[in-house]
Known about the structure:
The protein is of the alpha+beta class. Helix content is 53%, strand content 20%. The strands form two sheets. Strands 1-2-3-4 form a four-stranded antiparallel beta sheet, covered by helices on one side. A three-stranded antiparallel beta sheet has the order 5-6-7.
Amino acid sequence: MRRADEEVTHDHNWAGDLRGAVRCSVLLLALLLLIDWGDGSLTVVRVLLWLSLALLLFLVLYPPRVAVGPGWLASRGLLRERRVRTDLLVSVRCLDGVAQRLVLRDTAGDRVEIDPRVLVNNPDLWHRLDEDARTSAASGSLTCGETALRRMSERVDRETAQIVFKVSGME
């Protein structure tokens, strides 16, 4: 029998993000078809072109499914799954830019990039990752990234506290 702390935790917002990607793609397709139909220039070739464009938008917006279990974190995209051993992390980096990414690398050289908002929106995912990262730091394998983890922890704590205050009416 599995213990409760050995369960796999998934991103609770993934299904909503997937529905959002589908909605955006369908809306784009509908608008393009409506414009072409209204203009009288709707042809089979143009329908295929707009379908291709909507499919491309869906592929770009498709959210990876993040799951965390005892000693591992996985991010599954459309074509493949990437997995790292979180109890054997070597580095954790936060990449800033248009889309922030948290990059985790383990002793085997495996690498996973995730959106930090996934951890902020799912404190149970963050808790599991944080526990295993502390194990990595204690064993000496985590050589780079304790600052990034501390900042991530502060961000998760801050946003969780804001949600608690908002729900309790203490904003």
